[in-house]
Automatic annotation (TrEMBL):
The keyword Oxidoreductase applies. Keywords: NAD, Oxidoreductase. This is Hydroxyacid dehydrogenase. CDD domains: PGDH_4. Coiled coil: none annotated. Belongs to the D-isomer specific 2-hydroxyacid dehydrogenase family. InterPro entries: D-iso_2-hydroxyacid_DH_PdxB (IPR050418), D-isomer_2_OHA_DH_cat_dom (IPR006139), D-isomer_DH_CS (IPR029753), D-isomer_DH_NAD-bd (IPR006140), NAD(P)-bd_dom_sf (IPR036291). Residues 108-285 form the D-isomer specific 2-hydroxyacid dehydrogenase NAD-binding domain. The keyword NAD applies. PANTHER family: D-ISOMER SPECIFIC 2-HYDROXYACID DEHYDROGENASE CATALYTIC DOMAIN-CONTAINING PROTEIN-RELATED (PTHR43761:SF1), D-ISOMER SPECIFIC 2-HYDROXYACID DEHYDROGENASE FAMILY PROTEIN (AFU_ORTHOLOGUE AFUA_1G13630) (PTHR43761). Signal peptide: none annotated. Residues 5-317 form the D-isomer specific 2-hydroxyacid dehydrogenase catalytic domain. Pfam families: 2-Hacid_dh, 2-Hacid_dh_C.
Amino acid sequence: MTKTVLLIEPTIRPNGVEYLTNHFNVVLVPNGSEETIIAYINKHQARAVIVRTEKITRNILESCPSLEVVGMHGVGLDNIDVPSATENGVVVLNAPSSNYTSVAEHAMMSILALSRSLNISDSKVRNNEWHYRESYFPMEVNGKTLLIVGMGRVGQDLAKKARAFNMNVLGFDPFVTESEMQLHGVVKIDDLNMCLPICDFISLHAPLTKNTYHLFSAKQFELMKDSAFVINLGRGSLINEQALYSALVTKKIAGAALDVLEQEPPNSDNPLFTLENVIFTPHFGGDTLEAKDRCSESITHEVGVVLNGKISRNVVNPQVLGNAKAYK
């Protein structure tokens, strides 16, 4: 009997849909509400569901006995209750190697855009304020110090790009050794707060955990140079937005580039929107066409691996393996 995989509109790239259609029965779910997902899984006795931003809650996992696999079309797992999946014998997969190049490129773009106040300069020219060039002088990134918080795949690739611009690169990540960082030309930092006063740019690429929640708040901004910039392509809550707003308004730091926010989508009255020294993008640093194609190919193939009773290289809850419904 052909196994059923659910996809949720708006869904993944055509290459992934084609692969699934050739090997499994594919059902499209019209929306990502909890009630709809439960209804479709149970109606079609679906063995797997692939999600993008939709939440897979404990209620879904406990209400759907046929479910064996949850595939995350991306890297972050904030929208999936992984502990509950493990308790219910459901394998969770992601696509960790699909978009790190795109995110690193976005971070490097942000560094360069902030160094030249690109968004402000664009606005001034459009408003017939050509004289802006006489009152503002941009900076080079050559020789400047970049601190990368989170030295996983993204951080490593960003370090490579930053070093090509002759930047001095520091890395803060308790889970990456000094020797591993040295391989990427990065100096390991053990005390985050101690190094903040020497950094010109700080780029955040850490996961959101209880230890990284509001990792950057009033204390950290107070330690930074007045000329320093912060970039966040990790998770919105790595930064305390109220503290960031205060630091920007008082010119305690020079600016920020934010691809992620504490609330997404944000409220239109978010005070950060009133500031011209912040560059916003809609959480799509890793959403290039190339990355989406790689992600779709990766997650669909790995879901197929698990549904065929084999162990995937991308299992994020390996403790489930002995109790996983898919491997019984």
